């Protein structure tokens, strides 16, 4: 078997660079820490080993179906306005997963109509007359929020959706 000189040359040239890649910590006489990719020549340096990156799986996409709107007492199908106003579609929540879902409906909900809230296909509140639901401690990631208007017999007459991205700070105290 014949070895080609160019690939062998490239491997031998870059091998020391790949092997020496790392992070080093040096502390000066004033107690200031400096992190570099090469060990210090005039002060003691210690190699820094990094913990593995935390990765989380994406939430599953949950398909759903909705029925056609039914006429309201005004004779029009559904409501003129039925939408999730808060959080805005495709917005990011950065307060540890706590937020309130608010729905706007015009005209106001008819007598006997109720609202049901879903997050990622799971019912989280309702049916209820209130047009809001408080969410606490939501996992980080992208979530699909859905609200439905139900008539007096429980039939869905109108739906609305919004996507929200939840960012949460993770604090890992230093190891003792």
Automatic annotation (TrEMBL):
The keyword Cytoplasm does not apply. Transmembrane segments: none annotated. Keywords: Signal. Residues 34-77 are annotated as: Disordered. Residues 11-62 form the DUF4124 domain. Gene3D superfamilies: Immunoglobulins. Residues 1-21 form the signal peptide. It holds the Pfam family Big_7. Residues 47-56 have a biased composition (Low complexity). Coiled coil: none annotated. It comes from the Bacteria. This is DUF4124 domain-containing protein. It comes from Endozoicomonas euniceicola.
């Amino acid at each position: 078997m014949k070895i080609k000189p160019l690939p062998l040359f490239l491997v031998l040239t870059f091998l020391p660079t790949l092997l020496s890649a790392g992070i080093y910590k040096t502390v000066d006489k004033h107690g200031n820490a400096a992190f570099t990719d090469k060990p210090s020549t005039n002060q003691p340096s210690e190699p820094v080993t990094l913990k593995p990156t935390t990765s989380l799986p994406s939430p599953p996409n949950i398909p759903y179906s909705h029925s056609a709107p039914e006429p309201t007492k005004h004779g029009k199908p559904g409501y003129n306005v039925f939408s999730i106003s808060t959080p805005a579609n495709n917005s990011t929540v950065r307060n540890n997963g706590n937020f309130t879902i608010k729905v706007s409906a015009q005209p106001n909900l008819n007598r006997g109509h109720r609202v049901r809230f879903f997050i990622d296909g799971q019912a989280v509140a309702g049916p209820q007359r209130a047009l809001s639901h408080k969410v606490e401690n939501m996992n980080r990631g992208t979530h699909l929020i859905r609200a439905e208007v139900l008539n007096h017999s429980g039939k869905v007459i109108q739906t609305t959706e919004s996507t929200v991205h939840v960012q949460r700070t993770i604090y890992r105290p230093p190891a003792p």
